[in-house]
């Protein structure tokens, strides 16, 4: 690495070690934080040099402020500049013509990176990553964990203080999950060595005293020494450098001005005129800004500016050496000069078809006339990108707000649009702050309703349904609310009421959203229908849940547009799963998820994983179900869509209990309590049952019963838990009997019976009713009927649960043969599903009385990688063959996120860190045996 980097020995060692590991097949990410001028860019260059020495490919790019309005430009620019060039990324050159939505582009980019990294280690470097565009920031959140098993190393550098930028938010999220590198100022010894390295001689106290005034910031020290050398205020005698003369630089800006002042007038004007540009400097643009000069006349001034160190040349063109240098040169312009040059720059940007946000930025700084045009342009640009890049749209609207001023009459209307965008971007605090500001103003009724709509959306996005419902109610109570706004408010109120267990209000609000939305806002009608589907599902009216979900899906398919962004197939799949129509549910999930990827809808991503996990659990594929739920939590946290985190964590707790990982269950329950304490709401079946199932598994049946008190009180009217997990009806009976409360046991039986009567076509509901009654009355015939009904429903773990109860009853009556038969069947079903907790309970309970299971099966050879689950093993073997994760997902008919989750667990269980190590492990274990 470069000998000119001083004071960074520890940081260089971390980066060198990371790149050595990447060469060996390991992936990872480091985020470098530090103030401007602290040396982040120098570290990145050094990393690139070391990667070149290791034959690791390098894809590098600096992000610029106006990247934020050009989707995927940051990451695509880095990969298109990959060294050596890679055909895998050639399609990124036509990204603007790519019709696919955001998630489809990210999926294709992931596929390209996996294929490339399968044969060549890769280093991806993004400098000033806080300026990443929104889609690149989203891609980084997705791809860093997704590619962890590949030799892809990410180095992302950022300055602090950009908390609202999507790039910064992505880096902050990553910094809690990867190894951050925080660059501090240089110590005295490093300052001395840097001065001597720059001068080429030993520095005396006069040099060091001046350098100490730079606060240990390398760039400032280097610029100071450069200015002193340029003005010949450093003399060297007998190998020792000394500062002489008067008028020494007193600040960094003065230092830059000193260097610029030592240049020719043409070079100096070149630097000042182009300082109004925010990106790489084009020579033709520079000539125009300088007053229509001939571009050919600028080669000399450019060489002079580069030689001074103020400009540098890279693969993107000419750029200022550092943002601080750029800002210092901007400060040399008068207000009139700056406005004039920004006006010229706006004309140039228009001619070059630059992003509208960049044009508007120049117009805003060109004077009063330009600012007026800029506001309209910013609002128009925000509207154009709102659907795919809400954070970028919000930033554009905030920029317009800053230009409008506090007293401008159009400010409240702009705030109303901005609040909703901030909500979509997950910036709840800013949305609330702006919304409250607007509500204090004298607003017309329609604008006030739109502000409240934006605030309702903001709080619903954050999972705070009480506040969301409050703002929706306030909006609906106002006069002269436009019909389309009323429809959307009713839709929000409906979904919030479901989470708050107010099903009557939810159904009424959903019906109103549907009625109003049909004519005025189809998207709200779709949302109202899906809320009504959830109500019917919670109340145990399964055919009603399906009817509403089918109507929502048909409406969205017919009107398209924003209605499709409501993704009704999520709730269609939920209804189909509850009715046991698993194949249709899977098709709905697959089609809906493809649509979601194409449309780029962030909020819906966790929902697909949530309902796919429910489907897989019903079918007895617990490892895959846990992987889906785990992926859902990761995506919910990535996008700050916390309304889904609690239900997903509840699912993971239940799966942890079934799979016998109680420590994991306890940790997940702690996370639920943290979220609910922060105001995140969720239906009661997701919270109470998660904790109760964990307590019951730990043997605290009374504690589990007390936790479920509220569920007993409502299960008759809201049997949602029994719909999701039919075998829970019998658990409720057992908990009540253990606690000595036969009345509540009878309540559970009555609820299951009512559910079965309401849904005569549901085998699962019939099984739940027979199972609950069989446990209460200790009737073996009813338990046999429960097992038969559950077999028809194709829910293997429900069959196992009824079989376990039947076996225990046979034991108590001395019927050893029946007990053995029921026990063996339940044991095999539990093993096949990956329900290791159920397996252990059976073995330690009934198994101790019956003795070893008499399955009649011949002894099987132990499989390769015996420590892995049945779902993890095929993933590991296919990866060991050289398949990428996406190829494995296609082969096994899984989502890539599920494969990622399985592979993370494989690496953890096998205590390995790379695909190379996995391939070697599999080869070693299968060398002298057949893979089973």
Automatic annotation (TrEMBL):
Gene Ontology terms for molecular function: adenylate cyclase activity; ATP binding; DNA binding
Gene3D superfamilies for this protein: P-loop containing nucleotide triphosphate hydrolases, Tetratricopeptide repeat domain, Winged helix-like DNA-binding domain superfamily/Winged helix DNA-binding domain
Domain of life: Bacteria
Swiss-Prot/TrEMBL keywords: ATP-binding, Nucleotide-binding
Record-level GO cellular component terms: cytoplasm
InterPro entries the record matches: AAA_16, P-loop_NTPase, Sig_transdc_resp-reg_C-effctor, TPR-like_helical_dom_sf, Tscrpt_reg_LuxR_C, WH-like_DNA-bd_sf
Protein name: AAA ATPase domain-containing protein
């Amino acid at each position: 690495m470069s000998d000119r980097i001083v004071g960074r020995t520890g940081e260089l060692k971390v980066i060198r070690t990371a790149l050595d590991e990447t060469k060996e097949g390991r992936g990872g990410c480091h985020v470098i934080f530090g103030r401007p001028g602290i040396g982040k860019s120098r570290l990145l260059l050094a990393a690139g040099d070391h990667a070149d020495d290791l034959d690791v490919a390098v894809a590098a790019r600096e992000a610029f402020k106006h990247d934020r309005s050009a989707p995927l430009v940051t990451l695509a620019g880095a990969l298109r500049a990959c060294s050596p060039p890679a055909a895998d990324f050639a399609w990124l050159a036509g990204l603007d013509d790519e019709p696919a939505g955001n998630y489809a582009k990210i999926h294709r980019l992931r596929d390209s990176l996996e294929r490339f990294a399968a044969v060549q280690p890769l280093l991806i470097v993004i400098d000033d990553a806080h300026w990443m565009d929104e889609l690149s920031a989203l891609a980084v959140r997705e791809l860093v964990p997704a590619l962890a098993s590949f030799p892809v190393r990410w180095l992302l550098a950022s300055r602090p203080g950009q908390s609202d930028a999507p790039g910064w938010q992505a880096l902050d999220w990553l910094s809690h999950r990867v190894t951050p590198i925080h660059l501090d100022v240089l110590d005295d010894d490093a300052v001395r060595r840097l001065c001597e390295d720059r001068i080429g001689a030993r520095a005396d106290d006069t040099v060091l005293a001046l350098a100490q005034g730079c606060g240990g910031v390398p760039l400032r020290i280097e610029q100071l020494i450069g200015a002193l050398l340029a003005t010949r205020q450093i003399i060297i005698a007998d190998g020792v450098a000394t500062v002489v003369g008067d008028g020494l630089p007193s600040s960094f800006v003065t230092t830059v001005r000193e260097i610029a002042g030592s240049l020719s007038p043409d070079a100096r004007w070149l630097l000042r005129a182009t300082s109004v540009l925010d990106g790489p400097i084009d020579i033709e643009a520079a000539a125009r800004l300088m007053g229509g000069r001939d571009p050919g006349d600028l080669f000399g001034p450019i060489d002079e500016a580069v030689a001074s160190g103020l400009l540098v040349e890279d693969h993107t063109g000419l750029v200022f050496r550092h943002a601080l240098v750029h800002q210092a040169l901007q400060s040399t312009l008068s207000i009139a000069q700056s406005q004039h040059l920004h006006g010229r720059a706006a004309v140039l940007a228009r001619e070059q078809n630059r992003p509208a946000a960049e044009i508007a930025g120049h117009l805003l700084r060109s004077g009063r006339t330009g600012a007026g045009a800029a506001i309209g342009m910013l609002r128009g640009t925000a509207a154009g990108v709102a659907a795919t890049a809400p954070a970028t749209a919000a930033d554009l609207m905030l920029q317009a707000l800053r230009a409008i001023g506090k007293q401008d009459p159009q400010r409240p209307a702009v705030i109303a649009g901005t609040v909703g965008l901030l909500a979509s971007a997950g910036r709840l605090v800013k949305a609330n702050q702006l919304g409250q500001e607007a509500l204090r103003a004298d607003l017309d009724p329609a604008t006030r309703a739109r502000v409240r709509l934006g605030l309702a959306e903001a709080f619903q996005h954050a999972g705070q349904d009480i506040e969301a419902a409050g703002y929706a109610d306030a909006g609906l109570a106002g006069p002269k609310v436009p019909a389309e706004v009323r429809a959307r408010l009713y839709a929000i109120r409906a979904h919030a009421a479901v989470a708050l267990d107010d099903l009557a209000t939810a159904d009424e609000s959903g019906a109103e959203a549907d009625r109003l939305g049909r004519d005025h806002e189809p998207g709200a009608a779709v949302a109202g229908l899906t809320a009504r589907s959830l109500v019917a599902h919670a109340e145990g009216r399964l055919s009603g849940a399906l009817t509403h979900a089918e109507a929502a899906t048909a409406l969205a398919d017919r009107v398209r547009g924003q209605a499709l962004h409501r993704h009704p197939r999520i709730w269609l799949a939920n209804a189909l799963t509850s009715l046991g129509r698993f194949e249709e549910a899977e098709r709905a999930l697959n089609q809906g998820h493809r649509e979601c990827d194409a449309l780029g809808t962030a909020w819906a991503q966790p929902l697909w994983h949530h309902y796919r996990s429910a489907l897989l659990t019903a079918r007895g594929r617990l490892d895959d179900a846990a992987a889906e739920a785990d992926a859902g939590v990761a995506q919910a946290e990535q996008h700050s869509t916390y309304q889904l985190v609690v239900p997903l964590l509840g699912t993971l707790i239940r799966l942890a209990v079934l799979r016998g990982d109680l420590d994991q269950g306890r940790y997940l329950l702690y996370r639920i309590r943290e979220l609910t304490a922060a105001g995140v709401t969720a239906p009661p079946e997701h919270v109470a049952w998660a904790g109760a199932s964990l307590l019951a598994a730990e043997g605290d049946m009374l504690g589990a019963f007390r936790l479920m008190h509220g569920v007993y009180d409502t299960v008759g009217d809201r049997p949602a838990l029994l719909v999701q997990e039919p075998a829970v009806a019998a658990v409720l009976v057992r908990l009540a009997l253990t606690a000595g409360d036969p009345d509540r046991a009878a309540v559970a039986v009555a609820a299951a019976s009512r559910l079965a009567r309401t849904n005569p076509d549901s085998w699962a509901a019939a099984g739940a009713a027979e199972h609950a009654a069989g446990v209460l009355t200790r009737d073996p015939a009813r338990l046999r009927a429960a097992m038969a009904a559950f077999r028809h429903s194709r829910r293997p773990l429900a069959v196992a649960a009824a079989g376990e109860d039947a076996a225990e009853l046979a034991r108590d009556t001395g019927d050893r043969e029946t007990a053995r038969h029921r026990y063996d069947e339940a044991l095999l079903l539990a093993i096949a599903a990956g329900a290791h907790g159920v397996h252990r309970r059976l073995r330690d309970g009934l198994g101790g009385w019956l003795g070893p299971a008499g399955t009649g099966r011949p002894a099987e050879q132990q499989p390769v990688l015996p420590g892995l689950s049945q779902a993890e093993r095929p993933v590991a073997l296919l990866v060991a063959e050289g398949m990428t994760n996406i190829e494995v997902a296609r082969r096994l008919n899984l989502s890539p996120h599920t494969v990622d989750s399985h592979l993370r667990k494989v690496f953890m269980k096998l205590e390995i860190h790379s695909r190379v190590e996995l391939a070697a492990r599999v080869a070693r274990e299968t060398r002298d045996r057949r893979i089973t």
